[in-house]
């Protein structure tokens, strides 16, 4: 008795990609490239864990890498405060720490999010009477982005009432489709066993 098996694997026109999440920490920056966020105006921002004049003191165990960025935009400030980040990816998620009641401190939050110059979202929070902070709070997400470099700008809106931001980190989805067989040539593998 003879046995013959013929296996043909055709990979023509087959597109595939691999997506992985990467983080951009407020202080350390991009987990792969090391690119750090830009804070403007620079003098208006503080890295909270080393800030002695800040009224917000967080639990460093509950923020990514023990750091966060803190600023308050008040109605008499000439310009808003912003964070600018660049990334190559198809989705982006922003995580902040949300403050509630702190004695003698304005803790309302009012933010806008723009990607590549277009407004994509807002976030507002009216403090509760609790003195707890809400850690790892998703304040914005944008998915289904074109797979290319994007610029995300987070901006405070404090022109009518003060806006406090405690920025922790961003997660973005890096999608590698550079090795897709469809983008090179189609290939076929044939295995014969006699
Ligand atoms: C990336 O993180 C977001 C938010 O947690 C999640 O919804 C998404 O499924 C993750 N994507 C990948 C490829 O792990
Ligand atoms: C995005 O990818 C391009 C092409 O690889 C690279 O030149 C650019 O520096 C990357 N941008 C960021 C923000 O990593
Ligand atoms: C956020 O700011 C906008 C623009 O000043 C204002 O219209 C809106 O009422 C504010 N929202 C909150 C919840 O403070």
TrEMBL record:
Name by which UniProt lists this protein: Uncharacterized protein
Signal sequence bounds: 1-17
Lineage summary: Eukaryota, Fungi, Dikarya, Basidiomycota, Agaricomycotina
Keywords on record: Signal
Gene3D superfamilies: Galactose-binding domain-like
Species this chain originates from: Polyporus arcularius HHB13444
């Amino acid at each position: 008795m003879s046995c013959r098996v013929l296996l043909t694997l055709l990979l023509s026109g087959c597109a595939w990609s691999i997506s992985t999440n990467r983080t951009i920490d407020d202080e350390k920056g991009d987990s792969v490239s090391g690119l750090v966020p830009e804070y403007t105006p620079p003098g208006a921002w503080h890295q909270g864990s080393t800030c002695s004049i800040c009224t917000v003191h967080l639990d460093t165990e509950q923020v990514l890498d023990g750091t966060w960025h803190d600023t308050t935009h008040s109605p008499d400030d000439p310009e808003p405060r912003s964070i600018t980040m660049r990334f190559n990816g198809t989705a982006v998620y922003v995580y902040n720490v949300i403050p509630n009641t702190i004695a003698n401190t304005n803790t309302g939050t009012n933010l806008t999010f723009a990607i590549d110059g277009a407004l994509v979202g807002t976030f507002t929070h009216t403090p509760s009477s609790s003195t707890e902070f809400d850690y790892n709070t998703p304040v914005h997400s944008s998915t289904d982005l074109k797979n290319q470099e994007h610029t995300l700008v987070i901006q405070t809106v404090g022109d009518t009432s003060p806006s406090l931001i405690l920025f922790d980190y961003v997660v973005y989805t890096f999608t590698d489709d550079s090795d897709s067989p469809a983008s090179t040539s189609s290939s076929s593998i044939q295995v014969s066993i006699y």
